[in-house]
Amino acid sequence: MNRPTTLELLAPARDAEIGIEAVNHGADAVYIGGPGFGARASAGNPVAEIERLVRHAHRFGAKIFVTLNTILRDDELAPAARMVRDVYEAGVDALIVQDMGLMELDLPPIEIHASTQCDIRTLDKARFLAASGFSQLVLARELTLPQIQEIAQALPDTVIEFFIHGALCVAYSGQCYVSHAQTGRSANRGDCSQACRLPWTVTDTQGRIVAHEKHVLSMKDNNQSANLGALIDAGVRSFKIEGRYKDMGYVKNITAHYRRLLDEELAQRPALRAASSGRTTFSFTPDPQRNFNRGATDYFVNGRQIDIGAFDTPKHAGMPLGHVLKLAKDHLEVQLDDGVGEPNNGDSITWFDLQGELAGVQVNTVEPIDAAAGRWKLVPKEPLATLKDLRRDTLLSRNRDMAWDRVLRKNSAERRIALDLQLSETPEGFALDLVDADGHAARATVAHAHQPAEHAERAETALRDGLAKLGTTIFEARSVRLALSQPWFLPASTLNTLRRDAVAALEAVREQARQASRPRRRPAQQPPVPYPEDTLSYLANVYNHQAHDFYVRHGVQVVGAAYESHQELGDASLMITKHCVRFSLSLCPKQAKGVTGVQGTVRAEPLTIQHGDEILTLQFDCKPCEMHVVGRMQRSVVNKARQMRQADGAPVRFYRQRP
C-alpha cells in the first residue's frame, strides 16, 4: 500500500478562538483539549466550544483532534468514555490517546491517534500500535531521519506524525516522573511541575562542581524549518506544532510560518497535496524568532548535536535590540543595532547580568533622541537603581515588541477556496454552476425573464463583477464564464440571490462529501498481535485494570503498576532521556577518543545534580546513548497518597515481580 499523499499541518489550540485562527492561518488540522483528561491540565474546553471550532474547520476540510492523552484511574474510565461520545457527536475527527485502557472500552467509531506520551521510538512499538487500531502515530522527537524513514516505510498505510516546532521535553515523552516524585503532580496526568527548567548544580563522584546553577536539563526549542523537505522524504505526513498553552499570537505566527514552508515543498512535489482546502494569505511576514523561544535546535533529526540545551536560562531573551549608551537618573539612552525596528511604549527589554542570569524590565515610554541615527531614550517601569548590572555598553534584547503584538491582534490572514463560476440561461431564467478547487459542484437557478441589456459591454461587466463578489464566504473567484447567447439584463438583487443560493448549495455538497469520508477507527488485527515484550514495569504507565487487561490480551505476562500507584518507593529512573549532560559538558568518553592524554581517563561515571534540597543522580547508559535521572519519591508525596487511598480505596496493583 502507498503512503498517504497529503501533508497535514497540525496546529495547537488552547481554546476554540485560537483554533479558529489556526485554521484561518493555514492549519490542516487542530488539536485541542476536551472537557478533561488532557495532558495540559488547565487547557480544557467545553464540548459546545469544540463543536463551534469543528464547524469552522470542516468548511475548509480541516480536521479537529481532541486530546485524551493522560493515564486514567479506574473510576475515570466511564467519564472519559462519555466525553469521547460527546466529542464524537460534536463532529470531532480523531482522539489522541495515551492510555491503552481506552482501547478496551465501547467507544464510538472515532479514529484513534497515538499520543507522543506513548513513547514511540522503535519500529516494533510502532508496528504494534498500528496493528492495535491506531491510524496515526506521533513519533518520539529524539528520532533521526533514518529511524523515521524505517518506521514510515514499514507502515505505509499509517500516518506518521512528527513534532516540528515548540518546547522540548528533555525526557522521552511519557518517561518522566520527576514532577510526581517531588511534588505529587504527575506529568502523565497533565500536571508537570517542570523541574527540568530549574537551575541545577552538577558535581562528580569526588564532589567537585562541574557546573554551578545551570539549567542542564532545559532544552532549546524545537525548530525543524530547515528539515521539512527531508522529513517529507523520510515519510512524515503530519507536521505538528507544540503549544496548547500558547497564546493567539504564537499560534498565528508559527502556523503561518510553516504553512508557507509546506506550500513551498508542495509546489515541488506534484504527487502530494495539502490535507485541507483553500489558499491562505497573510497581512504580516511570519517570523518564529518573534515569539517566546529559548533558542532553536533541530534536536536529534540529523544526529546528536552538542548545542541543544538552553543551559543559561529557560526564559525568552528576545531579539537583539542594541546597547546602552548611558544611564541617567530615570532613563537610559540606547543605540539600536542596524536594521532593528523602533522601540515602542510598553516593550520589554532583557540583558544578562554579571552572573549570566537573564534580567529584564518593561519600558514605560520611549522617545527619539536621534531616530535617524538609531538613538533613543527609554524610561523603564522600575527605578534604574533596582535593575541589576545594567550599565554602559550592556547588550540589550527585546522580548516583547508591542508593534508586533498589535499586528497579530488584528485580522492577519484570509483563507479562501478557489471557485469557477459559470452563468447560463435556462428556458425559465438563469442557472449558476459552481465548481470548487476540490472538484465539488453545485447549481442554483432563478426564474427571470430574458431581457436584452441596453448596453451589452456594461451589462457583461456587471454580471462578471456581481458573480465574483463572494464577500465573506470561504470562496474566491478563480474564473467567471458567461455562457449566454447574448448579454442579458439581470438586476443586482436577483444576481446576488442566485450567487448566494449557489454558494449555499456548494457548501452543502462539500459537507455531504466530508461526512461520507469521515475517518473511522481502524479495526485492530485479530487475533491480537503480541506486544514486543512480555514484561512491563512502571515505565509502561498502566494505571487502570482495563489497560492491564489490554496488555495481557496482547501476550504480556507481567504488568507493573504505573509510578503514580506508589509501588516504586526506592531509587528508580525518574527520567529517561536522549540528552546527555556529560556530552553537553564535553565529558563524554566518546568525545575523548583520540585525544592525547585524555583518552581512557574520562569515564561515564555518575554525576549528581542538586537544586535546593532536591538531589538526583545522573546515570549514563552508553550503549543506547541514554541518560537516566535517578531518585526516589518524597516522603510527603507518599504520605499524601496514603491518605488519599484511605479515602478513595485500594491502590492499583498488578504484579510486583514475575510470578
The CATH architecture of the largest domain can be named as Alpha-Beta Barrel
Shape: globular
Any idea of the CATH topology of the largest domain?
TIM Barrel
Q: Low-confidence parts lasting 5 or more residues at pLDDT below 50? A: none
- The number of E-state strands comes to 32
SSE class: alpha/beta
Name of the CATH homologous superfamily of the largest domain: Copper homeostasis (CutC) domain
State the share of residues found in helices, binned by percent: 10-25%
CATH class of the largest domain: Alpha Beta
- Please summarize the sheet with the most strands: 8 strands, parallel, barrel
Region (Disordered): 512-531
Protein name: U32 family peptidase
Domain Peptidase U32 collagenase: 398-510
Pfam family, one: Peptidase_U32
